[in-house]
Specification:
Blueprint lengths: L7 H7 L7 E5 H14 L7 E5 L6 H9 L3 E4 L2 H9 L7 E3 L8 H7 L3 E4 L4 H9 L4 E5 L6 E2 L5 E2 L10 H13 L4 E5 L11 H20 L3 E5 L17 H16 L8 E4 L3 H4 L3 E12 L3 E5 L8 H5 L5 E3 L9 E6 L8 E8 L7 E4 L20 E5 L5 E5 L4 H5 L13
Parallel strand pairs: 1-18, 2-3, 2-11, 3-4, 4-5, 5-6, 6-9, 9-10, 10-11, 13-15
Antiparallel strand pairs: 1-12, 7-8, 12-13, 12-17, 14-17, 15-16, 18-19
Helix pairs in contact: 2-9, 7-8, 8-9
The chain binds pyridoxal-5'-phosphate (PLP).
């Protein structure tokens, strides 16, 4: 059974100030998890997590992670600015962009970010725009099919990211000639995997590459960035990743490959999004309609604008009907939003207790790639984000959008003025 970090009583109190729908985040859960990750990699003195800002781009949440020692992983100007706003400075930011627009490398360099080049042609682009910094990272794509022990695989050969092995060597040489002093290696091969061997397997691949790059080019490798991709248990039957075992697996590979090569000073970086925040966010909605046609529908006051993953990927998000946690799931519902899009369904054929109008539903695990993927289809507005603080109080960390926000980009003449 999956439990919620908010209860019916708490939600009934919260809605007096902040009506549904809203995303709410659990500060205690976020901090404990960040500390556990740090502990799992404590054997590596340079270890650092750079939170993938795109997962949950809220400065108040970034601040919490910063207090826990995390940096930020950015790939756009807005994400760089969010990180700057919370005081991320030299060495606190990874800039893992791709197809990078003009101006972003300049800003990243100004902030003292580690620039992670997605392609060998970006070397000239970066150099012409703002000159190369002293430390540069390059993103690796091994191509082909990437398979883990339990059969989980992905297809890097089809992915747009990263450089080939030959380009890594050539790129390092070119960067050294331009004056780069220290290097990083980055790769992101499998997304949302709860397989405990993902990081250790990836680490082996990257450690071997690091040794080869050092031997072929003489480059000084400062860090290896295992990037994101560690999954979370979205379904009740899914297991939580044993992060201590993951850390130990990476340590073993480190001691077998890097240490004998005289590279025992390389720092391990991660760039996790989902793992850091996913389970510690929830979307709270209210059942406002029920409909009985060929199927049974429950209409809620949120829609795919607030959480796009079910519509976009058919992703499973667990649902708890608050106050009915112990009732039998005797009904089968489609839980749907109000978009004029038939894929706007938070759950399809889901077994749930009987839902009555006015019931509050918690849609679980929306803390990463939840609010942030939202759009404004049908002119629907984005919700507020709230923080459940460690002391049990609730703080608004983003207000809900209003029609004024929606129409704000028509402020160049008078037509929409009455609404602005
Ligand atoms: C999206 C992304 C991440 C985070 O991925 P998660 O699956 O949320 O861990 C990390 N690094 C890069 C470059 C990304 O694009």
């Amino acid at each position: 059974m999956k439990s919620t970090f908010v209860t019916k009583e708490m939600v009934e109190k919260i809605v007096k100030d902040y009506p549904t729908p809203f995303h709410i985040y659990d500060e205690k859960g976020i901090r404990n998890n960040a500390r556990e990750l740090k502990k799992a990699f404590a054997w590596n003195p340079g270890f650092r997590e750079y939170f993938a800002v795109k997962a949950t781009p809220n400065p108040y949440l970034l601040q919490i992670l910063k207090e826990e020692g995390c940096g930020a992983d950015c790939s756009s100007m807005s994400e760089l600015l969010l990180s700057e706003a919370v005081g991320m400075g030299k060495g606190d930011i990874m800039f893992s962009s791709n197809e990078t627009p003009n101006g972003e490398f300049t800003k990243a360099k100004e902030l003292g970010a580690y620039i992670n080049l997605d392609d060998i042609t970006h070397i000239d682009f970066l150099n012409e725009e703002c000159g190369v910094p002293e430390v540069v990272c390059m993103r690796y794509n091994p191509g082909g099919i990437y398979e883990l022990e339990n059969g989980i695989m992905d297809n890097p050969g089809d992915a747009k990211y990263g450089c080939t092995r030959e380009q890594m060597v050539e790129g390092y040489r070119k960067l050294m000639a331009l004056g780069v002093k220290e290097f990083g290696i980055h790769s992101f091969l499998v997304s949302n995997t709860t397989a405990a061997d993902y990081y250790p397997t990836l680490a082996r691949t990257l450690f071997e590459l690091a040794v080869e790059l050092k031997e072929k080019t003489g480059a000084k490798i400062k860090f290896i960035n295992l990037s994101g991709g560690i999954g979370i248990p979205y379904r009740p039957e899914d297991k939580k990743v044993d992060i201590m075992a993951v850390g130990e697996g990476v340590r073993k590979a480190y001691e077998e490959i890097l240490v004998p090569a005289g590279m025992g000073d390389v720092a391990i970086f991660t760039e996790l999004g989902r793992f850091m925040m996913g389970p510690y966010g929830a979307l709270v909605v209210k059942a406002i309609h029920e409909k009985h046609i060929y199927k049974e529908y429950i209409g809620v006051d949120a829609c795919a604008v607030n959480l796009m993953r079910p519509a976009m990927y058919g992703a499973y998000h667990h649902i708890t009907v608050l106050g009915k946690e112990n009732e039998e799931p005797e009904y089968i519902y489609d839980v749907v939003g109000s978009l004029c899009e038939n894929n706007d369904k938070f759950a399809i054929d889901r077994k749930l207790p009987k839902i009555d109008r006015g019931d509050y539903l918690v849609i679980h695990d929306t803390g990463a790639h939840g609010f942030s993927m939202g759009y404004n289809y049908n002119g629907k507005l984005k919700s507020a984000e709230l923080l459940l603080k460690e002391d049990g109080s609730v703080k608004m960390i983003r207000r809900a959008e209003t029609v004024k926000d929606y129409f704000a980009t028509f402020d160049f003449d008078d037509l929409m003025k009455p609404y602005l």
